[in-house]
Write a structure and sequence with these properties.
By secondary structure, the protein is of the alpha/beta class. The chain is 34% helix and 27% strand. This is Digeranylgeranylglycerophospholipid reductase.
Length: 403
């Protein structure tokens, strides 16, 4: 059905599945629900899908495998082969120096840097081609309920309020999601779990085209880190995330980019929750996916590679529930169970690592990078690592927290 037809269906509409949010989580959920032959509407509050950019735009190779798509130069800006970690004292370690001799996954630092403006819209277009109806510049004001069960949304489009009934509502409304709270599935975030982020797209001839750089230090990005992600030749996303200090992320970013002879062409700011996923991502007639469900890596703040599998599962389970005529919480729990099997262990370990990293001093980070550098070109033995920890007893206590 065309958007013109949607707007002339009257003040009360009915769909099998309504997805709220048109970014990656929403478009993928819609795409796979539509591929399973149910009637889907996707609602996006902004007038254009894909803007503003709200992340560093990196993702893993698995993204395209899950989507059953081939990467395209239309939205892949760079293919990353490796990475470098920079300590507070400006020493550094390259990923390739560790991978070769320590039986690590050779793809650990590999991936893609996307043009999310193009990629997000591409996913929405693919979803529309699969049969999804899309409404932009439309805000969801409330959830509709019948006998305590969610059965649709109340939305406002161009000043007009309408009720849209649905068998299943999928909340993919991002970091600032209020739908999960409306459904009683999410408590307010702890402010210390929110990472304040700022990022420039910079033009500079000195950027590595196939390597990401991560910078750590209390003076660089307290409670977080800074990054340089290459994009097209001569451009990169340069940003950082912080937690706790009185200065803003933008103020820290201005200081950080002074080391580059670069010209900014875009600035984006926002927040990323690093608390780990919410306890429950389903209820009667309702699912939560992506940033709204806090399906975000608590160490990196990355959400694309975690959202993609979850969103596909959400769309497929929603379609299955419609076909089985069972949209109860008991049925929709299949989504919660399935995504947790896929990524929950990764997110739990990542949260532990983040809490350990929060306690690391700059001196301890420097010592760790120095140890790794001294181990270049050889396998790191357990004995060598234990000896290193023996020289840094506080680090030993922190490592125990990971076990």
């Amino acid at each position: 059905m065309s958007s013109w037809s949607i707007l002339h269906r009257g003040e009360c509409m009915k769909y099998d599945v309504v997805v709220v949010g048109g970014r990656i989580g929403g478009s993928i959920s819609s795409l796979f629900a539509s591929k399973n032959d149910v009637d889907v509407l996707m609602i996006e509050k902004r007038q254009e899908i894909g803007v503003p950019v709200q992340c560093a735009e990196g993702t893993t190779h698995s993204t395209f495998e899950i989507l059953e798509m081939k990467p395209s130069s239309r939205y892949v800006c760079a293919e990353v082969e490796t990475g470098t970690i920079h300590a507070p004292n400006e020493t550094y370690i390259n990923a390739e120096d560790l991978v070769e001799f320590n039986n690590l996954d050779k793809n650990i630092a590999k991936g893609y840097i996307l043009d999310r403006k193009v990629f997000d819209k591409h996913l929405a277009i693919e979803s529309a081609k699969a049969g999804t109806d899309i409404m932009v510049k439309t805000t969801v004001k409330d959830l509709m309920k019948k006998d305590g069960k969610i059965c649709g949304v109340v939305a406002k489009h161009m000043g007009k309020t309408m009720e849209i009934k649905a068998d299943v509502v999928i909340a993919a409304d991002g970091v600032e999601s209020n739908m999960a709270q409306m459904a009683g599935l999410k408590a307010p975030d702890n402010p210390m779990d929110i990472c304040s982020c700022a990022q420039y797209e910079l033009v500079c001839s000195d950027f590595d085209h196939d390597r990401v750089h991560l910078y750590f230090g209390r003076n660089i990005a307290p409670g977080g880190y800074a990054w340089v992600f290459p994009k097209e030749e001569g451009t990169a996303n340069v940003g950082l995330g912080i937690r706790g200090p009185s200065e803003t992320a933008y103020q820290y970013l201005k200081k950080f980019i002074s080391k580059f002879n670069a010209t900014p062409v875009e600035l984006n700011v926002g927040g990323v929750p690093l608390s780990g996923p919410i306890d429950k991502t389903y209820t009667d007639g309702f699912l939560v996916v992506g940033d709204a469900a806090r399906q975000i890596d608590p160490v990196t703040g990355g959400g694309t590679f975690t959202t993609v599998p979850c969103a596909r599962i959400a769309g497929e389970v929603a379609a299955e529930a419609v076909k089985e005529e069972d949209t109860s919480a008991a049925f929709l729990k299949r989504y919660d169970d399935a995504w947790r099997v896929k990524i929950e262990d990764i997110l739990k370990m990542s949260l532990k690592c983040r809490k350990v990293a929060d306690k690391l001093t700059d001196d301890e980070m420097n010592a760790l990078v120095e140890f790794l550098n001294n181990s270049k070109g050889k396998e790191i033995s357990k004995i060598a690592f234990i000896k290193f920890l023996g020289k840094h007893p506080r680090l030993l206590r922190l490592v125990k927290d990971l076990l």
